[in-house]
Amino acid sequence: MHVRWVEGGEKFSARWRSESGAPPPAEIVVVDDGLTADEAHRLANADKAMLWRGDFQNARQLIKAVTRRADRSGRRHAPKSPVEAFYLHRQRQARRARLLGKLLVPMETGYVVPLRRAPDVREACLAAYGPDSEPTVVSLREMLGVIGAHEWRINGVEVPGLDGRIHPHYGVFAPVRGEYVELVARAPLPSRELAFDIGTGVLAAVLAARGVESVVATDLDPRALDCARDNLDRLGFGDRVRLERTDVFPTGRAPLVVCNPPWLPAKPTSPIEHAVYDPGNRMLKAFLDRLGKHLAPGGEGWLVLSDLAEHLGLRSRDELLGAFDAAGLSIVDRLDTRPCHPRASDPDDPLHAARGVEVTSLWRLAVG
């Protein structure tokens, strides 16, 4: 897909790039440092995209100012229930993303940004997008995400339960919530022979670090698999973990099957949100319904799941326990922990009432 605009009386076009799947803007106006935050907010609300030709650092300041205006205008009324608070929060997030996505920056072939004081984004864009062959236009919001993700990839994220660092790739969810990793790091292993990691991420490395001789890790997302391979090789576990691109389970049975599915039953709006939102509990139900067919006799399935959805009114505890029963699964034990990330104690977070009482659990499940 391409975008088109008129600049200096001439017609131009470039490839449109959007990892979130946003459609190309129908109307583009060319702007520069003379654009005020109020005018930018007005143009974005009028569904007009703005192609930036000014100073790159000024554009960064402008998008912060537009963010503040978008947040203020999005606060209409107080929610009446936790579930209403959740959906209002999602609506505000979507509206903010739509507005901020209207500020665009050009990139020449080779990911060169032809703006004053623009950073060198070539390495970051190549890692995120792969090779390019033509000029492109991308939202400044996405470009800043690409830059930030590349910094994370270079520096890595310390994972206490792993005693090592994970280097997340762009578009792959980073293990910033270490409490769930620590649950897997301390739960009693039923076997060290073989384990399946469903929806691979950091947990395959944790299992290998605990001495599991062979791990089969699955995912459908090529980026997640590439990221896992990179990190497993960095950590020295590459020879003990086999990655398989498949939906949920690999073939065969294992004495231990681990799954950390997306925790909230809602629709994702971007590729990376698939790690957080699970429409209709699809992955959760698939894991539970098919777990018995992939557990070796006497084996355990470990389900790592937050109860945030319960506090938000998106799923009840009775529904979860009923899903265990329907799948013919019994509870061997449950390990609990509380989150320690900043939002859990932030009273200004729109979901604070639910986050403040959230508990993350590792459910040890068995057949029968």
UniProtKB/TrEMBL annotation:
<dbReference type="GO" id="GO:0003676">
    <property type="term" value="F:nucleic acid binding"/>
</dbReference>
<dbReference type="GO" id="GO:0008757">
    <property type="term" value="F:S-adenosylmethionine-dependent methyltransferase activity"/>
</dbReference>
<dbReference type="Pfam" id="PF05175">
    <property type="entry name" value="MTS"/>
</dbReference>
<dbReference type="InterPro" id="IPR007848">
    <property type="entry name" value="Small_mtfrase_dom"/>
</dbReference>
<feature type="domain" description="Methyltransferase small">
    <location>
        <begin position="196"/>
        <end position="306"/>
    </location>
</feature>
<keyword id="KW-0489">Methyltransferase</keyword>
<keyword id="KW-0808">Transferase</keyword>
<dbReference type="InterPro" id="IPR029063">
    <property type="entry name" value="SAM-dependent_MTases_sf"/>
</dbReference>
<protein>
    <submittedName>
        <fullName>Methylase of polypeptide subunit release factors</fullName>
    </submittedName>
</protein>
<dbReference type="GO" id="GO:0032259">
    <property type="term" value="P:methylation"/>
</dbReference>
<dbReference type="GO" id="GO:0008170">
    <property type="term" value="F:N-methyltransferase activity"/>
</dbReference>
<dbReference type="InterPro" id="IPR002052">
    <property type="entry name" value="DNA_methylase_N6_adenine_CS"/>
</dbReference>
